[in-house]
Amino acid sequence: MNVQMLTELAVKGHITELQLLSLEGGFYLARVRLDSVEKTLLGDDQQPLRIRSTTHLRDLLHGLPAFPCVLVQHSVHDEMCGVREGPIGGLRIPFSLNSVL
Fold first, then answer.
1. Average pLDDT, the chain
2. I want to staple 51 with a disulfide (CB 3.0 to 4.6 A). Which of 1, 28, 92, 97 is the partner?
3. How far is CA 54 from CA 12, 30, 67, 77, in A?
């Protein structure tokens, strides 16, 4: 999914959630969840779009209608130590595409 397709789906109200996944190396990838499928946001080169920050994402998607967004940060420490039982989910922090004042 590219930015143009994301824009079209957002205008139609079809975006269920955008997940901004924090990865090693100081960059993020965006996963867009629709009703029954998740898609990665791609750049012009058809490769996953590397996003530098939430501000970069806000600039990229400026002017789109509001939809739920969440920053997802996985804890490598929990995975390495294995202290918790059951599945280990990422920390999910809601945020808005509206500019922060």
1. 87
2. 28
3. 23, 10, 15, 24
Q: Does 62 map to a domain?
A: yes
Would you tell me how many other CB atoms lie within 10 Å of the CB of residue 36?
Answer: 6
- Residue 101 located in a structural domain: no
Indicate the pLDDT class of residue 101, thresholds 50, 70 and 90.
Answer: very low
Q: Are 29 and 74 in contact (CB under 8 A)?
A: no
Task: Tell whether the model's pLDDT for residue 52 goes beyond 90.
Answer: yes
Residue-range definition of the domain harbouring residue 14? 3-95
At residue 89, φ and ψ (nearest 5 deg) are -95, 160
User: Is residue 48 in some structural domain?
Assistant: yes
pLDDT at 39 over 70: yes
In total, how many domains does the chain have?
1
Assess if residue 100 is contained within a domain.
no
Specify the pTM.
0.81
